[in-house]
Amino acid sequence: MMRAKAAATKVVARGGQVLCLDTSALLDMARGPEREQFDWSHAAAALSLLARAEAKPPAVNIVLPDQVIDKINANKQDVIDTARRDIQRLDGKSRNFSGLLTAYGLTPPVIAGNFASADYPAAAERVLDRFLKRAIVLNAPNVLLRRAWNRVCSATAPAKTGRQNVKDCVIVEICLEFAS
């Protein structure tokens, strides 16, 4: 982990663009495929950014606050497990629809009910791990924790009245410190 100033010096020496990500942006890559908010074009864009980050020298520098790493470590397995269950449900729906097509004398597609065999969750987890491996991780000194707490107390975005989301505010403050 690095302080913002040391990380900024490293990024300037490397060159390339900077990509600051939050927990949801990364975990969304591993969530089940039935979601309407994340589709193949999002996955393709993420993989394109990852390829640029893995280039030598990197064309994109991935910067993650340590809070993001903590939240991913706390939630990754649950996201992967949920994706597996979602895909099993999708397979069940697909098999059911295939049966309906057959009952009506239609020919169902060959892939019906076999999505789990592709092991999407494992592939998505590998992509997520590659992002984490390429990341420059920033830590939060006490001054940034105080700023984050002030955001919560004043309900300044991303904090909302009646909802204490200090973790999200810490992420914002770390990224702002890095950028300044």
Query: Total number of β-strand segments?
Result: 3
Average pLDDT number = 87
Helix and strand element order = HEHHEHHEHH
N- to C-terminal separation? 18 Å
- Report the structural category: mainly alpha
Any low-confidence stretches, pLDDT <50, length ≥5?
none
Radius of gyration: 20 Å
Instruction: For the largest sheet, list the strands in their spatial order.
Output: 1-2-3
**Large-scale geometry:** elongated
Share of helical residues: 55-70%
Tally of helical runs: 7
Binned strand content: 5-15%
Largest sheet: 3 strands, parallel
Tell me what you see in this structure.
The chain is mainly alpha-helical and 180 residues long. It is 62% helix and 7% strand. It has a three-stranded parallel β-sheet, sandwiched between helices. The two termini are 18 Å apart. The mean pLDDT is 87.
